[in-house]
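Lecture notes, continued. The same structure-token format from the folding unit now serves as the input rather than the output. Read the line below as a description of shape only.
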């Protein structure tokens, strides 16, 4: 064997020799000789390994080395972060980057990206300003809070609040709220990491008034309430409502902090959607600090918003951690523009994509589904393609059992499994994320407003 390998290895050309080949001239002009040489080295190393493993010449002879180099360059330069068409039925999909922004926000981000902006500069006074100033009064107006600040995401908001107001002290929380939100965010872990002592009260299904009062001691910093988001205990269950928790807090001179998760700035039940917690209602119930996400129901860019009493917010701002968790100019631009849409409730459901998707009439979704199904039928011989009733869900911690009626295209094949069809769509020319449910592959058409966006004729569906 070893004897046979030597000549094969010797047949591999040197890096310099490959770089001289006609087919790489253009690549060297565009990407520099150094980069192409590094790719050639990688390709040659790969071939050497292949020869060792397979002791065959086939890999070397069947494809020209320069072709392999060009293919690898192309692969390296393809964007890793790319558009995915979300037909999964989960509208705020955390793995797909949650809310998509309104046009105004996209435009504002473009401007901020391409230009210097008055991020921390007061143009009126001609002196240094504060980056929170661009959105604070707007957030206060929309939530009824005294003050507001913003950080990178809601976990950062919770972390900053805990670390600022309770480091080295006790934080009391119900066992029913010690949940994992997903993506490895576990409330108890965050409490511990922020330097606070976690004091669990009650049981998983029931926590009472006295459970809190019995836990309070001189080292207690505050009472924490966390929205259980993606999880609900039903049956023999009870918890202490925020209002009652606030009265306990007041009696013992302790602040009450609430992590709302996907708090909404408006009551979305007014649009016929399931009721979700509203930030203003928590402020009105007396919460001293409330945290929530910018990219969940709010429909903006990834951010964590903290609202509440002026003194507390001021202390958060003075924590050196705030500097590490602060927002960049792009996010502030996108968030400010998104928040301004809320100044007109009439136009909000049309302008804010998340609400536009959620309030889209089923008849409209059905029309898109029919168009798309017809195009798919022409494109997919041998597949069974139908339109069915199904449900979409909000996602990102809104209650999963609160689903919204929709229309889906179901695609099945007598010899190809639904998992395989799922894969075909995901690995097509442009990734399309559907879902497999009860033995069928489904495409939820709620988020497709124009079948042209699917570019069905260009889909390269390959069951291999
Ligand atoms: C989603 C959620 C978080 C995490 O928010 P991010 O913006 O993802 O950091 C924290 N708490 C609750 C209750 C949530 O629902």
């Amino acid at each position: 064997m070893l004897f046979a390998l030597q000549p094969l290895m010797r047949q591999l050309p040197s890096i310099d020799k490959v770089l001289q080949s006609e087919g790489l001239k253009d690549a060297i002009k565009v990407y520099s000789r150094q980069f192409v040489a590094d790719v050639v080295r990688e390709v040659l190393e790969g071939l050497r390994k292949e020869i060792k493993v397979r002791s065959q010449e086939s890999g070397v002879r069947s494809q020209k080395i320069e072709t392999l180099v060009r293919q690898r360059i192309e692969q390296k330069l393809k964007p890793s972060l790319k558009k995915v068409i979300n037909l999964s039925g989960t509208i705020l999909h955390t793995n797909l980057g949650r809310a998509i922004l309104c046009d105004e926000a996209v435009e504002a981000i473009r401007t901020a990206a391409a230009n210097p902006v008055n991020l921390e500069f007061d143009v009126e006074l001609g002196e240094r300003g504060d980056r929170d100033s661009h959105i604070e009064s707007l957030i206060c107006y929309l939530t009824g809070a005294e003050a507001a600040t913003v950080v990178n995401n809601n976990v950062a908001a919770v972390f900053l609040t805990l670390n600022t107001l309770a480091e080295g002290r006790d934080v009391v929380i119900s066992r029913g709220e010690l949940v994992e939100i997903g993506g490895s965010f576990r409330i108890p872990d965050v409490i511990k990491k922020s330097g606070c002592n976690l004091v669990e009260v009650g049981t998983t299904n029931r926590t009472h008034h006295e459970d809190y009062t019995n836990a309070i001691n001189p080292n207690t910093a505050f009472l924490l309430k966390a929205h259980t988001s993606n999880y609900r205990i039903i049956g023999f269950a009870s918890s202490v409502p925020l209002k009652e928790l606030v009265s306990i807090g007041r009696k013992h001179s302790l602040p009450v902090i609430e992590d709302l998760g996907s708090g909404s700035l408006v009551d979305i039940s007014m649009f016929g959607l399931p009721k979700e917690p509203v930030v203003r209602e928590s402020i009105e119930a007396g919460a001293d600090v409330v945290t929530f996400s910018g990219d969940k129901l709010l429909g903006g860019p990834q951010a964590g918003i903290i609202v509440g009493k002026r003194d507390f917010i001021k202390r958060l701002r003075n924590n050196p951690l705030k500097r590490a968790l602060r927002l960049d100019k792009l996010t502030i631009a996108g968030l400010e523009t998104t928040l301004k849409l809320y100044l007109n409730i009439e136009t909000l459901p049309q302008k804010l994509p998340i609400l536009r998707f959620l309030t889209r009439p089923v008849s409209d979704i059905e029309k898109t589904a029919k168009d798309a199904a017809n195009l798919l039928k022409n494109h997919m011989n041998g597949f069974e393609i139908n339109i069915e009733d199904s449900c979409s869900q909000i996602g990102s911690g809104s209650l999963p059992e609160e689903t919204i009626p929709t229309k889906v295209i179901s695609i099945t094949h007598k010899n190809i499994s639904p998992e395989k069809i799922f894969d075909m769509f995901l690995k097509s020319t442009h990734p399309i994320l559907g879902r497999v449910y009860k033995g069928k592959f489904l495409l939820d058409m709620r988020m497709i407003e124009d079948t042209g966006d699917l570019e069905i004729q260009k889909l390269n569906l390959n069951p291999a």
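Point for the exam: The mean pLDDT is 92.
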